[in-house]
Amino acid sequence: MTAKIIDGKSVAAQIRMELKAEVEELKRGGICPGIAVIMVGDDPASQMYVKMKEKAAQEIGLHSVLRLMPVGTTQEQLLQVIGEMNRDSNIHGFMVQLPLPEPLREKEVIEAIHPDKDVDCFHPYNVGRLLIGEAGVKPCTPLGCLTLLDRYGLEIEGKKAVVVGRSNIVGKPVATMLLHRNATVTICHSRTKDLATELRQADIVVAAVGQPQFITGEMVKPGAVVIDVGINRLPNGKVVGDVDLASASQVAAWITPVPGGVGPMTIAMLMKNTVEAAKNQCKG
Ligand code: GUN
User: Fold this and answer.
1) Which atom from ligand 1 is nearest to the alpha carbon of 270?
2) Which ligand 1 atom is at minimum distance from the Cα of 95?
3) What are the tens digits of pLDDT across the range 250-269?
4) Is the pLDDT assigned to residue 127 strictly greater than 90?
5) S-S: 36 plus which of 65, 122, 209, 217, CB 3.0-4.6 Å?
6) How far is CA 276 from the centre of its chain?
7) Is the CB of 273 inside a 6 Å radius of any atom of ligand 1?
8) What is the mean pLDDT of residues 213-233?
9) Which atom of ligand 1 is nearest to the CA of 99?
10) What is the pTM of this model?
């Protein structure tokens, strides 16, 4: 079998187009959705992501603020800026790019963000709501994964889903969201005894381990849907996922490539969350 490609790049472009039209409509009603991205330090990968977010925000017509803070920024200075964003009525959603340079305290930073403006869905209040199935913001990468399945008409209900990775950003929330859609969900991780046996039962695989080409074709059930969240740079500079695309494509029915799969969806979902936050804050 040669898997069909789940083209995240084109779905993300389509969603940005839909959001652009929605933002134009909101602007006609006097609402201009605003996003701010705060970044501390000069990590090259983070700089690249932040620029991509700003570009997407501009493309769909959001009011966009990029707040770059130097290495050496103190916890108090960062909390001060978060306070400003919380109070700024032109900013409906904002995020602090992670990881933060040491010795900044990430947990305290996340908890300082007003939950209504938490477009990452990292605040414990929003994480708790997600877990109990209350309506509200959903984290961008997991939402991107489920949106890809939905846009390709790939069924979730009743399927056996195996999530590899248990991070707070991807593994745990994507497992939760698949569960809410009535999948039977298994979470695997570094201490899982027999990963291959678990994976071979999966109708849907979500790979979020952060290890290049870790999941190979022989671990995949014929006909499975494989969603690869990984972004890893090999020593030769090539960017690859957590799944070995060449061998897994021989076995799976559907697969996301890296790059061009989940990555662009994460940014599109951040834009979507911002538009939703603006609508929520301006209704009334
Ligand atoms: N660093 C890597 N991914 C993310 C993300 O989705 N949000 C934030 N705030 N930082 C990140």
Assistant:
1) 6
2) 9
3) 999 999 999 999 999 999 99
4) yes
5) 65
6) 16
7) no
8) 98
9) 1
10) 0.98
**Cα(120) to centroid(ligand 1), Å:** 7
Residue 215's Cβ-count burial label (10 Å; 0-12, 13-18, 19+) is buried
Q: Give burial (CB, 10 Å; 0-12/13-18/19+) of 25.
A: exposed
The average pLDDT across 156-160 equals 99
Question: Does the beta carbon of 269 sit less than 6 angstroms from any atom of ligand 1?
Answer: no
Concatenate the DSSP letters of all residues of 174-192 into one string: HHHHHHHTT-EEEEE-TT-
Ligand 1 and 97: CB distance under 6 A: yes
Ligand 1, atom 9, lies closest to the CA of 97
Residue 11 CA, chain-centre distance (Å), reads 14
The set of residues, in sequence order, having a beta carbon less than 8 Å from that of 42 and lying 6+ positions away, is 71
Atom of ligand 1 nearest to the CA of 98: 10
Q: Ligand 1 within 6 A of 96 CB?
A: yes
> What confidence tier does 283 reach under pLDDT thresholds 50, 70, 90?
confident
> Cα separations (Å) of 271 from 63, 117, 217, 281?
11, 12, 34, 15
Q: Which domains does the chain have, with CATH numbers?
A: 30-114 (3.40.50.10860), 140-262 (3.40.50.720)
23-58: pLDDT as tens digits: 999 999 999 999 999 999 999 999 999 999 999 999
Q: Which burial class, exposed, middle or buried, applies to 249 when counting CB atoms under 10 A from its CB (0-12, 13-18, 19+)?
A: buried
Residue 270 pLDDT class (50, 70, 90 cuts): very high
pLDDT of residue 284: 64
Q: Is 37 in the pocket of ligand 1 (CB under 6 A)?
A: no
